[in-house]
Amino acid sequence: MAAPSQLSIRRRIAVAGVVQGVGFRPYIYRLATDRSLAGTILNTSAGVTIEVEGASLAVHDFITRLPSEAPPLAHITSVTVENVPFRGDREFQIVASRGGEQARVLISPDVAVCDDCLRELFDPADCRYRYPFINCTNCGPRYTIVRDIPYDRPLTSMAAFPMCPACQREYEDPRNRRFHAQPNACWDCGPQVQLWNDEGRAFHIDDPIAAAATWLQEGGIVAIKGLGGFHLAVDATNAEAVERLRARKRRVEKPFAVMVPSPAAARRFCDIDDLSLQALTSVQRPIVLLPRCNDEGEIAASVAPRNRYLGLFLPYTPIHHLLFDAGKFSALVMTSANLSEEPIAIENHEAVRRLHGIADCFLVHNRDILIRKDDSVVRAGNGRLRQMRRSRGYVPMPIFLHKKIPRILAVGGELKNTICLTRGSEAFLSQHIGDLENFESHAFFEETVNHMRRVLELDPEFLACDLHPDYFSTRWAQQQSLPRVEVQHHHAHIASCMAENHLDKRVIGLALDGTGYGTDGHIWGGEVLLADYSRFERAAHLDYVALSGGEAAIREPWRIAVSYLWKHFGRELFSLDLPFLKQLDCTKLDLVTQMLAKRVNSPLSCGCGRLFDGVAALLGVRSEVNYEGQAAIELEMAMDRVDDDGSYPFAQRIENGVTILSTRPLFQAIVDDLGESVPPAVISRRFHNGLVAALASVAHDLRDRTAINEVCLSGGCFQNDYLLRRMEGTLAAAGFEVFTHSQVPAGDGGLSLGQALIAAAQLSGPSS
């Protein structure tokens, strides 16, 4: 290195974000040495600190290129540069981390195998030819193999596989793509695959993956161990195999996800826009909900019955790629390996025990999965990618907040549960945990809490939970010793939308879903709130209706339709000339109307999701459901290719200063149109349009009264693509600034984020 001169400078660069275990240090090493720069790089509690010195032009080029050419798994949240004295270092060095310095570094999510590794996988001259666990610093397992931090091999499930000399040399070479790649392995030293029968005994065969492919070709059901758990796989073009999987898994109609070998294959089945293609081919490899082509191709209709969308995703592990190569499949069903409503299986013998009688054989390996993680689900909507289920590929990347808040553990709701841990200006949402309805899901919830606290080294100071006294997550929070904030469900929805959009002001919040415990003890879900983080005012809501049979009404939407007809027509409903009523069992109809008349087991609800259910049943779209949200989804699907701009009316009245949106005119209009034999597709469209118009009218009134122009849209109903686009477009056209979800789900999967922000605001005292 030349002596200091006017052209020689030294800079200290602090980089925060996901910069550990993603090839960042060797990247910096190459970036510096290629420019003949000297200095050091050191892991710190927030990321890395780089000191670099040499010719000023080279140093400035280094700083300019640093964020723009970073490895694909790196996520840089900030870069700060300061001048420091020139030292005259002779080389660039990667300095060993100091004890305790890695606690704040972010762990990368698990991501798809990269193109470089894929080329090696199918190169007969490569030492890792067809090795099912090929990876490098740019790809492969991360979070699901981490037992503790720092993220070093001894604290991962790769600790059981000491590296061979060749892998060790790669691991220690800063110029190698596998420098400090903790899962690095090869045929000689790494994990191996086996094919087991349905009793858990291994077949003695040379190529377990090829044998599994043959089993699938012959119509079998194969359990396949992936990154975050097992999949159950069948040939998606084999209708008989798909039906057999449905029967064994007890999944009557809920759509299955489908893995296809390439984007070209995906285009055979679905229309794919640029945003969806970007998601489909991203390193996260989520399931992408895509509209079917007119010609569905070979995929069995039973894969996604009565749904114009398919959930497609691409192979993301080497095993997936080898399986498609061996079987030449056009599409495979790849669904979570569990019975309905149970967590995904992750351990080999656990899978055999839990999936006995479902899977015909098991493609397993001996690298342990340390945390369960389902596939993520996304959909492109109105120009943005929307998270439907945020899990593998995205977790544990934090949501970055607009300010620092206390250390809070928020435990979410009952359905589509996630938890959230906050640290400074970072909010870490867990992977999708699911519905907390059984012992297995309760155990998964606690397992997730403990794992996240450990790998984030984060001891919360406070807890946040839902108001509902009977939610498992609420009861769990009540049993802990930490101070607790109980948060109203729909307030949490709006706060979640505010948080990811970095809002810190009072907004108009439209929170639309099926169920949430209200402060009046009734079931809320059609809410218009005036809210900031510290408090909310219920400004308007849909009118209440009694749900005959309570929980039974959610499973049997015909009950909700009867409840609305009874509310608005009373005993006159028996004289209505409706196909819906003619198809009902007279005894059941009489029993339900008696329950409603006497208010027996008929709780009050204003849930927007329940309104969708009732309309769907009245139209003959869906009278009973087999999965949550099915009636509303099929009501949305019923609008397919309908061009009608009509809308049904709602009435408004004021009660105790709160606007009530009455559904009486809506149901009168629907009954009239049914009497005129208007197609259900047109009625569905007019219903959607009318709901948007009614809510937009309320927003206008609130803006006139409060001068608030910002509107947040949240709640599971906004996973309805048409409703979201129509609502956002109508409000934007009226001059509102509209905020929606993209980083976290609009549904209950985003609740925990909102709970954490509300708890932080309430703990800091009332806002000014």
The CATH class of one domain, by name, is Alpha Beta
State the low-pLDDT regions, or none.
Answer: 1-5
The biggest sheet amounts to: 10 strands, mixed
Output the number of helix runs: 23
CATH superfamily annotation of one domain: ATPase, nucleotide binding domain
Number of strands: 29
Mean pLDDT: 93
- Determine Rg (CA atoms, Å): 28 Å
What is the CATH topology classification name of one domain? Nucleotidyltransferase, domain 5
- Shape, principal axes of CA atoms: globular
Provide the structure class.
alpha/beta
The portion of residues forming beta strands comes to: 15-25%
Major sheet: order of its strands? 6-13-7-8-12-9-11-10-14-15
Helical proportion? 25-40%
Do you know the CATH architecture of one domain? 2-Layer Sandwich
> What's the N-to-C terminus distance?
58 Å
